[in-house]
Specification:
Number of strands: 20
Shape: elongated
Structural class: alpha+beta
Order of helices and strands: HHEEEHEEEEEEEHEEEEEEEEEE
Number of helices: 4
Largest sheet: 5 strands, antiparallel
Strand content: 25-35%
Helix content: 10-25%
Length: about 350
């Protein structure tokens, strides 16, 4: 696969949860504050896996073969070329054979040990859009290394860092899942954390601006939006919460940002507040069923057995991985371990 095709394929995979729209997206470099924050976070966290309350991974197809792949490289980082316990001697394989290979014994044992995964654990792959769950005992899965989607044969001899390391799944066991597995989440552990069938697409209704809850905007958000004007206001309601969205438009009347407020139906308290805006690496998603959109981006409801309701799907992510917002006062964001090296 040449470099252009690999990068295009990578883009389709790495937009997995951020927005399930396959249109080309122009990301404007308009928010200095936000882009600098992204850069600073990247520098600060480089080489240090982020600790989440639950580690969720993504699954990707391996080109046109019968293999799907789950990368654990976000929690199993290797960069030292002298680390012979992580991977065998790549140069002994040659540039083609080394692009994808399975391994056993010492390398598998090291991977499981460093990621706190046991042979008695299971992998749970849940497609929330199709409401399909596939379960695989870890002991039945092959461990594998795959050349990063941003590396090619021209990069030979490959470095350890050029590889994604994880588990191989036969695609036949994921029949009926979303295209490119874009709506699939992966958890590895003893028990299934997913609650099936209680996550729903958000159907937005245009609402009078006067209905949008009154809450002072954060200082940094006011600065970010100082050259914008308010656009449409939307709402969506479930048994527990009401969701409000306010559009903010740039000089060309394009959507520059959206502000989300989630209120409790009984107390009317604002539980969470989020701002999704244009930046070097982010862009607001189209809203479900608006302006002829057929793709579903925003989801809300119960996703986990032991957590409050969640909401997600409001922005495209170019650098880093998308996240799931937990609807409670903790303001928790669960970032996917998507191995985005863009």
């Amino acid at each position: 696969m040449n470099i252009k095709l690999k990068v295009l394929f990578a883009a389709s995979v790495l937009l997995a949860l951020s927005c399930n729209d396959k249109k080309n997206v122009e990301v404007q470099e308009t928010s200095v504050n936000k882009s600098e924050a992204v850069k600073n976070d990247t520098i600060e966290d480089e080489g240090i896996p982020k600790k989440e309350s639950i580690n969720l991974f993504t699954v990707m197809p391996k080109d046109s073969s019968e293999v799907a792949f789950v990368s654990l490289s976000d929690i199993y980082t290797i960069g030292d070329e002298k680390d012979t316990l992580a991977l065998p001697n790549i140069q002994d394989m040659g540039p083609l054979e080394a692009q994808y290979f399975t391994f056993e014994k010492n390398y598998r044992k090291r991977l499981l040990s460093k990621t706190n995964i046991s042979e008695t654990d299971s992998m749970f792959v849940y497609d929330y859009a199709k409401n399909k769950l596939a379960v695989f005992p870890v002991k039945s899965l092959k461990t594998a290394a795959m050349l990063s989607l941003y590396s090619t044969e021209d990069d030979w001899p490959y470095r350890n860092f050029d590889f994604m390391i994880g588990f191989e799944i036969n695609k036949k066991f994921l029949n009926g899942f979303s295209e490119y597995y874009r709506d699939a989440l992966v958890y590895i552990g003893r028990e299934n954390p997913f609650l099936k069938g209680q996550l729903k697409p958000m159907v937005w209704k245009k609402t009078a601006r006067s209905e949008y809850p009154s809450k002072p905007m954060k200082g940094e958000d006011r600065v970010l939006l100082k050259n914008t004007v308010q656009g449409n206001t939307y709402s969506f309601k479930t048994d527990s919460y009401k969701y409000f969205l306010q559009d903010y438009l740039d000089d060309h009347k394009n959507i520059y940002a959206r502000r989300l407020l989630v209120t409790d139906n009984q107390s009317k308290d604002i539980i969470i507040e989020k701002l999704f805006s244009q930046s070097e690496g982010t862009s607001p998603c189209p809203l479900n069923y608006q302006n002829g959109e057929t793709s579903i981006n925003q989801w809300a409801g119960k996703l986990f057995k032991n957590k409050p309701e969640v909401v997600f799907g409001f922005e495209y992510i170019s650098f880093g991985c998308s996240s799931i917002s937990v609807i409670d006062k903790s303001n928790e964001e669960i970032s996917l371990q998507c191995d985005n090296r863009h």
